[in-house]
């Protein structure tokens, strides 16, 4: 189990409550969202105790960055937040309302045990639905966590020039560097700010701040040229969206 809470006393309390649970091993503790993402990716724990309210990256952003497919089973903890509680209830996800007592904590732990025995496929779907509902009232994805050379690197989404689909991964092109992110381009597109990122091909999303010009190509094709000279093909099915962005100048 991984314990994630920005308050030291809260982490100590959880660790103390788990001391008598022989089937639970605490593999680490984190005080912030960035550290949580790194340890979840590196350690692959079966269960995470995850505080929702944390500075910089909150608990929901941790789940968003890791992705529901890779996210372990989660016991959320939150101070009173009407919107968050409604979201948990709507998507059948368990949570602990701070301050919680020992009885409530152990009930959540027992439920987690049952879920682990039965498999968490349904909970993956619940997490996706939760994130989908929260995105309607929350900011777009701002950071991406990628593994590189045994390390976990955090990139701001605005630092990525363009995204490219590659099988079960997405290639992030940022300057001279490229990084692999597990997932699909469709899922990533839903997390990005549509005013900043535009899908121009079934396999390509471009950061509009990096676009230099649009050029005609052979046989009526078109390419976007980025500031570093990279040329990206514009798919026929995506030209209307590009046309709307460019103010109807694309023919």
Keywords:
15 strands; 34% helix; OB fold (Dihydrolipoamide Acetyltransferase, E2P); 5-stranded parallel sheet; 5-stranded antiparallel sheet
Descriptive notes:
It is a single chain. The protein has 251 residues and is α/β, with parallel strands linked by helices. It folds into two domains: 134 residues, Rossmann fold; 103 residues, LytTr DNA-binding domain (OB fold (Dihydrolipoamide Acetyltransferase, E2P)). Helix content is 34%, strand content 29%. It is built from eight helices and 15 strands. The strands form four sheets. Strands 2-1-3-4-5 form a five-stranded parallel sheet, with helices on both faces. The chain has a five-stranded antiparallel sheet with strand order 10-9-8-12-11. A three-stranded antiparallel sheet has the order 13-14-15, with no helix packed on it. The longest helix is centred in the middle third of the chain and has 17 residues. The chain is elongated, with a radius of gyration of 21 Å. The protein starts with a strand and ends in a 6-residue tail after the last helix.
